[in-house]
Amino acid sequence: MLEVEKGSLFAGRYIVVRCIGAGGMGAVYLAHDPRYRNFPVALKVLYPGVIKSRELRERFKTEIVASYRISHKNIVRAYEYFDEENMQAYAMEYIEGVDLHQRMKSGPMSFEEVAGLLRQAAAGLEAIHSEGILHRDLKPENIMLTKRGLVKIADFGVARLRDENESITKAGMMV
User: From the candidates 83, 99, 137, 163, which is the catalytic residue?
Assistant: First the structure.
């Protein structure tokens, strides 16, 4: 069983700082590579029970493949993919800030702020679609906001590559 604890070395490369989020399929950890100063990463690690499912492993791999294809300022950048028998994970750009859901709960937003966020999200979606990818799970929790106000679209967990013959998620299937 894979255990990711504060201070542990992940995949022989990243030192885990702390857990920054968890969902139904896995958890996300703040980590850093000791070879590079001031370069934090977010590690998304699937739960051990989840990686036993071939279908869920493929869905996660699709997420990484989809995010590797995109290089845009409004998209969270993927760095490195790990796929072993007892572990599946990837390292991605760490976003210091909040998601749009948290921002909306913190108080009213001006028209100018909303318009700016929408403009950036649309630019990110345009980049995603131009690479033949359908995100399929765009929601406030998957729109990250940096401390400088930059929008970063995240979580390609149910993305679909348009040129694939078959999607990882089927019509009527819940994720």
Answer: 137
Active site residue 137: yes
Is the pTM here over 0.85, yes or no?
A: no
Do 153 and 93 meet the contact criterion of CB atoms below 8 Å apart?
no
What's the rounded Cα separation, in Å, for the pair 103 and 101?
Answer: 5
pLDDT of the chain, 175 residues: tens digit per residue: 456 889 889 988 899 999 998 887 789 999 999 898 788 999 988 888 777 777 777 777 776 777 777 889 999 998 988 988 788 888 999 999 999 999 999 999 999 999 999 999 999 999 988 888 877 778 999 999 999 999 999 876 554 555 554 444 444 444 4
Contacts 24+ apart (CB under 8 A), 58-64: 58/168, 59/157, 59/158, 59/168, 59/169, 59/175, 60/25, 60/26, 60/88, 60/157, 61/88, 62/156, 62/159, 62/160, 62/161, 62/168, 63/155, 63/156, 63/157, 63/159, 64/90, 64/156
Buried b (16+ CB within 10 A) or exposed e, 96-121: ebbbbeebeeeeeeeeeeeeebeebb
